[in-house]
């Protein structure tokens, strides 16, 4: 029992007495059980004290974390305000120094007059130099303060991360302590002392702060339905083939990251745009090729008709068979020439895909 509780508080004599006792030493066994119960009660009180101390530390860390977060927000707001003021001052100075000489308005003329350097003939330092130096010094001070605030902000972020890790550690420690206390509550050494021991442990558990939160966390960690659900999901994932597993991992990755979702959206839009633009370009190129082919076929047809007329005129004194043979030869030559011209036109059209 002691090894299960992980206390190891008994001395060697008690352990040897437990191993060597027999049925005739019931009185000594009762005394040892009473001593064991007292030791368990004392250890229970120590655990309660440690739990209360851990709760106080966690509350203190939580309050300090809240103060640091509020201070960080205030410093961020102050840094943003100072950055906006610096930017506004730089813009005003640049606008005033680069403004036209003949611009109207008191503000621009006054700033230009103040920012102009004094002529070499002036023997005294004007107010322009003092104003420019004051503005430059103020800008340098603001930059130094901004750098210091950024460093302090980084330090505060590190401290907040450390406090958050401490809070998580304390929460897990509290859950473990609650588990040990539940074990002590369920421990039953003897029927005589069971009632007083159970009442003491229940009273101590009820007196602890935030006990419901740790109770819920402990019950959730030992919930068999949650463990069964996780095992079933792992088993179902192991039964999937490689393609389904890759698809599941990819869908979880793209659906779980905002940047991945945006990348997928823009990628699909760009791909659709490229596909539709390519189809549009091919459609217009095909229509143009048809027009060029028709024009190429019309030209050889006209030439063939002229040749046929010339052959008919030349074959008036020839026989009928000779005239027909001449006409057929002229028609074949016209077809061959038309096919060559159409091929050449189509080849030129395909070699110029950007021409519309």
From TrEMBL:
Pfam families per UniProt: CASP_C
Cited InterPro entries: CASP_C (IPR012955)
Domain CASP C-terminal: residue ranges: 43-285
Signal peptide extent: none
Keywords, in A-Z order: Coiled coil, Membrane, Transmembrane, Transmembrane helix
GO cellular component: a single term: Golgi membrane
Positions of transmembrane segments: 263-282
Coiled coil: 33-71, 146-173
Record-given protein name: CASP C-terminal domain-containing protein
């Amino acid at each position: 029992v002691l090894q299960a509780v992980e206390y190891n508080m008994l001395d060697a004599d008690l352990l040897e007495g437990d191993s060597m006792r027999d049925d005739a030493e019931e009185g000594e066994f009762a005394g040892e059980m009473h001593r064991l119960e007292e030791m368990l009660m004392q250890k229970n009180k120590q655990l309660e004290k440690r739990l209360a101390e851990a709760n106080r530390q966690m509350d203190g860390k939580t309050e300090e974390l809240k103060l640091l977060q509020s201070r960080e927000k205030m410093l961020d707001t102050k840094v943003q305000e100072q950055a906006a003021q610096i930017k506004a001052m730089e813009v005003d100075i640049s606008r005033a120094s680069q403004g036209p000489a003949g611009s109207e308005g008191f503000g621009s003329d006054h700033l230009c007059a103040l920012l102009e350097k004094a002529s070499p003939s002036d023997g005294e330092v004007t107010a322009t130099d003092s104003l420019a130096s004051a503005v430059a010094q103020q800008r340098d001070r603001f930059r130094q303060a901004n750098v210091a605030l950024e460093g302090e902000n980084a330090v505060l972020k590190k401290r907040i991360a450390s406090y958050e890790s401490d809070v998580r550690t304390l929460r897990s420690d509290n859950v473990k302590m609650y588990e040990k206390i539940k074990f002590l509550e369920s421990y039953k050494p003897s029927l005589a002392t069971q009632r007083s021991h159970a009442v003491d442990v229940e009273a101590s558990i009820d007196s602890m702060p935030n006990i419901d939160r740790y109770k819920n966390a402990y019950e959730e960690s030992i919930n068999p339905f949650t463990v069964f659900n996780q095992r079933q999901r792992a088993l179902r994932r192991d039964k999937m083939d490689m393609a389904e597993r890759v698809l599941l991992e990819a869908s979880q990755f793209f659906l779980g990251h905002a940047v991945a979702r945006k990348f997928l959206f823009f990628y699909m839009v760009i791909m659709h745009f490229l596909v539709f633009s390519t189809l549009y370009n091919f459609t217009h190129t095909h229509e143009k090729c048809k027009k060029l082919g028709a024009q190429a076929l019309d030209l050889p047809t006209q030439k063939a008709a002229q040749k046929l007329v010339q052959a008919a005129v030349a074959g008036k004194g020839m026989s009928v068979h000779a005239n027909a043979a001449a006409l057929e030869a002229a028609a074949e030559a016209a077809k061959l020439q038309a096919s060559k011209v159409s091929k050449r036109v189509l080849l030129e059209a395909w070699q110029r895909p950007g021409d519309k």
